Amino acid sequence: MLLSQSQANTQLSGPAKISLKPIPVFIAAWALAGFGAVIGSVLGSAAGKPGLLAGAVVGGVLGVGAAVVVLTKLQWLSPTDRRGAFVGGIVGFAVAAPIAVTNLRTPVTPVLICGLAGVGLLLGVGVARGWRRGS
């Protein structure tokens, strides 16, 4: 039996039958991780360059967490997918952070690279769903 993508998403999202909305999820995770990193770096800048970088990382992780909460409240992300989304988003942001730091001379690269948090979030959902299906 072949299922369409929306049917497959609905079946995998658990008892609540919430379908994953990948484009809005990607954009929200990208925006909130980036916003969190900017706010964190502004707050951490009082402690110098190490504080600026630490604040950006902490802010980005909090932004990923906020994205997961907001997406779940909007029912764009199933509650059963939260853990995988959070871990994947953090991994994506962890990949993005060193790239953004080495390319601070251009404002476009750090903004675009925050999209890796959205990619990681979606990949985390996919991996978590695969593990749930396999067990």
What labels describe this entry?
elongated; 77% helix; mainly alpha; 135 residues
Please report which band the strand proportion falls in: under 5%, 5-15%, 15-25%, 25-35%, 35-45% or over 45%.
under 5%
The average pLDDT score comes to 86
Count of helical stretches: 6
Structural class: mainly alpha
Q: Give the % helix.
A: over 70%
The low-pLDDT segments are 10-16
* First-to-last CA distance: 21 Å
Biggest sheet statistics: none
Quick synopsis:
The chain is mainly alpha-helical and 135 residues long. The chain has helices at 5-12, 22-44, 48-73, 82-102, 108-113, 115-134.
Describe it.
The protein is mainly α and 135 residues long. It has one domain (21-134). The protein contains 6 helices and no strands. The chain has helices at 5-12, 22-44, 48-73, 82-102, 108-113, 115-134. Helix 2 runs antiparallel to helix 3 and helix 2 (22-44) packs across helix 6 (115-134). The longest helix has 26 residues, at 48-73. The protein is elongated. The relative contact order is 0.17.
Topology:
Layout: H1 5-12, H2 22-44, H3 48-73, H4 82-102, H5 108-113, H6 115-134
Helix pairs in contact: 2-3, 2-6, 3-4, 4-6
